[in-house]
């Protein structure tokens, strides 16, 4: 079922040729801006999807994934299975989660929960336990009740499951997720829990009613540790960021950064953050990185306390392959942290290889385009909040 979801998303998203739209390049000595009539005449003979006039374009990047991230989808079959993940240790969340699960069961869906949550009695008895290490169940969609940490936990659960991953590779599309904000911040949670019946009804009943569902395909990172002898260890998936730092060592850290097989720079400082757009408002933001809308296909490279004034954060294409290594000349060893969830030590001569996963996490939105994201940065981060300047008084 999850596969059909993403196939539906891809069908709605369209072809790769629409990623950049029609582009116009002005060469030195070319005429100034054209009128609309002249522009229409000049492009009428161009083949559909053309990017350069009178030229055949061949891409340098071997990009096989869709670069666009904003989409809408239709269910090919009505959903039947749900993975429900909630914030632990919160009575209000537990009570509301039980209400949601009972509603889903009454609608005839099979609800799966984590074994620990099942054991606490927070969910109805008809809910089935779901173990990410063992269970090979095709989940139609996920429900998250909590904050951003709970959503990251949901994404990590799927990233650990052998149904969606085999060895070092992601092998199946992930199910879409609807998230209800019941945590401290809930920056990535689009819906309020008091409206859960209306929201879930729109998701569950979308096929029968012929409705489309708004979604953002949130970029995930696939990270692999490379040993001294070049062997790659099984990958970890990240929805937010991969952090490479000096760990607990008090000295100056030193790591080497390479992008697409080319040495780029030596990072001297506390470390480096490789972030997705979703993670751009987390640790990345705290150390001076840019905020990037989740629909932008990119990765962010942001230094942590660099020992130089000129090391600015940069944004690179998500098709890039990044390798960060600890050189033999470094005075300290390193460590790599995945979404603040797992940690691996990096010795001298070891590295971490990071690239974009083939399968993003489809997040169900309440609005098309990036309106949910703009609402979050203005309401929850108070972006550009200030007292408005008064108008000039005129006598």
UniProtKB/TrEMBL annotation:
* Name of the featured protein: NAD kinase
Family statement drawn from the similarity comment of this UniProt entry: Belongs to the NAD kinase family.
Q: Which GO terms describe its molecular function?
A: ATP binding; NAD+ kinase activity
Query: What are the protein's UniProt keywords?
Result: ATP-binding, Kinase, NAD, NADP, Nucleotide-binding, Transferase
Q: Per the UniProt entry, what are the Gene Ontology biological process annotations, in alphabetical order?
A: NAD+ metabolic process; NADP+ biosynthetic process
The record's annotation in InterPro entries points to:
ATP-NAD_kinase_N, ATP-NAD_kinase_PpnK-typ_C, NAD/diacylglycerol_kinase_sf, NADK
Q: Which organism is it from?
A: Chloropicon roscoffensis
């Amino acid at each position: 079922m999850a596969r059909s979801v993403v196939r539906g998303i891809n069908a709605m998203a369209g072809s790769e040729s629409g990623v950049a739209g029609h582009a116009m390049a002005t060469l030195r000595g070319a005429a100034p801006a054209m009128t609309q009539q002249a522009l229409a005449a000049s492009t009428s003979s161009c083949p559909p999807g053309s990017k350069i006039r009178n030229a055949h374009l061949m891409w340098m990047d071997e990009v096989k994934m869709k670069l666009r991230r904003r989409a809408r989808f239709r269910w090919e079959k009505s959903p039947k299975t749900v993975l429900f993940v909630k914030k632990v240790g919160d009575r209000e969340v537990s009570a509301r989660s039980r209400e949601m699960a009972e509603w889903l069961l009454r609608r005839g869906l099979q609800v799966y929960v984590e074994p620990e949550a099942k054991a606490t009695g927070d969910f109805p008895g008809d809910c089935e336990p779901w173990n990410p290490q063992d269970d090979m169940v095709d989940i139609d969609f996920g429900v998250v009740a909590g904050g951003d940490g709970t959503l990251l936990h949901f994404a990590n659960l799927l990233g650990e499951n052998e149904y969606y991953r085999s060895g070092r590779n992601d092998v199946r599309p992930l199910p879409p997720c609807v998230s209800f904000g019941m945590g401290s911040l809930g920056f990535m949670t689009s819906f309020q829990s008091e409206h859960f019946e209306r929201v879930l009804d729109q998701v569950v009943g979308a096929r029968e009613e012929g409705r489309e569902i708004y979604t953002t395909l949130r970029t995930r990172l696939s990270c692999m540790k490379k040993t001294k002898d070049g062997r790659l260890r099984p990958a970890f998936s990240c929805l937010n960021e991969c952090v490479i730092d000096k760990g607990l060592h008090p000295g100056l850290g030193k790591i080497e950064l390479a992008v697409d097989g080319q040495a780029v720079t030596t990072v001297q400082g506390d470390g480096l953050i490789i972030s997705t757009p979703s993670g751009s408002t987390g640790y990345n933001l705290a150390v001076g990185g840019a905020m990037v809308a989740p629909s932008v296909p990119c990765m962010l490279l942001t230094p942590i306390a660099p020992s130089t004034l000129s090391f600015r954060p940069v944004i690179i294409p998500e098709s890039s392959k990044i390798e960060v290594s600890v050189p033999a000349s470094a005075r300290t060893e390193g460590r790599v942290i995945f979404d603040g969830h797992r940690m691996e030590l990096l010795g001298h001569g070891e590295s971490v290889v990071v690239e974009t996963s083939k399968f993003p996490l489809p997040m169900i939105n309440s609005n098309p385009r990036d309106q949910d994201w703009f609402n979050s940065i203005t309401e929850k981060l108070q972006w550009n909040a200030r007292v408005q300047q008064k108008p000039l008084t005129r006598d």
